[in-house]
Specification:
Helix content of chain A: under 10%
Helix content of chain B: under 10%
Number of helices of chain A: 0
Strand content of chain A: over 45%
Largest sheet of chain B: 7 strands, mixed
Radius of gyration of chain A: 13 Å
Order of helices and strands of chain B: EEEEEEEEEEE
Oligomer: heterodimer
Strand content of chain B: over 45%
Distance between the termini of chain B: 34 Å
Number of strands of chain B: 11
Structural class of chain B: mainly beta
Radius of gyration of chain B: 13 Å
Shape of chain A: globular
């Protein structure tokens, strides 16, 4: 079983739709969580950190559920420009400080 | 300029040749990482380093060698390139603590 798992999708949604991705992690000692965005095999870029209390950045909302060991990303009012692969990242102190990436979920927003 | 840079951006080499991919960061980040990403797949960790002179294997280290004599540099060497090592290679760095990682622009390596 992978340490970090994501539904690969693809998710195909119309513009304006709301879409949610989940990411599960297996290491209960995980402490830090992030969502990254990757466009067409370019370098991944930080989208947002995920805080215990949940956090929002414009149309994007991230949630953490420690009990069930998953994080989520909600995108409201999807834009064409949101089409990308979304990667979740987990850091656990017991893992020698490694940043462990999920394989990503691909989102395509269609007109 | 501040940041993390990789060189070369593109490289074509022949099977059996030794190839070194360079990675340089200007933030004095403690952690540095090398990932490979094959077409249609996720990132796979090759090697990482928690500090100068400290390196450790990731998921797919076979056929690769790294060194970290200086904090800012983390070169990745393919000792004898094989076609299966054709991939996009990303270097990343991260500061102390559980902070986000920053990626270089990647090196597209083709082994023929």
């Amino acid at each position: 079983r992978k340490e970090v798992e994501q539904d690969p999708g693809p998710f195909n949604v119309p513009e304006g739709a709301t879409v949610a991705f989940n990411c599960t992690y297996s290491n209960s000692a995980s402490q830090s969580f992030f969502w990254y965005r990757q466009d067409c095999r370019k370098e991944p870029k930080l989208l947002m950190s995920v805080y215990s209390s949940g956090n929002e950045d414009g149309r994007f909302t991230a949630q953490l559920n420690r009990a069930s060991q998953y994080i989520s990303l909600l995108i409201r009012d999807s834009k064409l420009s949101d089409s990308a692969t979304y990667l979740c990242v987990v850091i656990a102190n017991t893992n020698a400080g490694k940043s462990t990436f999920g394989d990503g979920t691909t989102l395509t927003v269609k007109p | 300029d501040a940041g993390i840079t990789q060189s070369p951006r593109y490289k074509i080499t022949e099977t059996g040749r030794q190839v070194t991919l360079m990675c340089h960061q200007t933030w004095s980040h403690s952690y540095m990482f090398w990932y490979r990403q094959d077409l249609g797949h996720g990132l796979r960790l090759i090697y990482y380093s928690a500090a100068a002179d400290i390196t450790d294997k990731g998921e797919v280290p076979d056929g690769y060698v790294v060194s970290r004599s200086k904090t800012e540099n983390f070169p990745l060497t393919l000792e004898s390139a094989t076609r299966s090592q054709t991939s996009v290679y990303f270097c990343a760095s991260r500061g102390q603590g559980n902070t986000e990682a920053f990626f270089g622009q990647g090196t597209r390596l083709t082994v023929v």
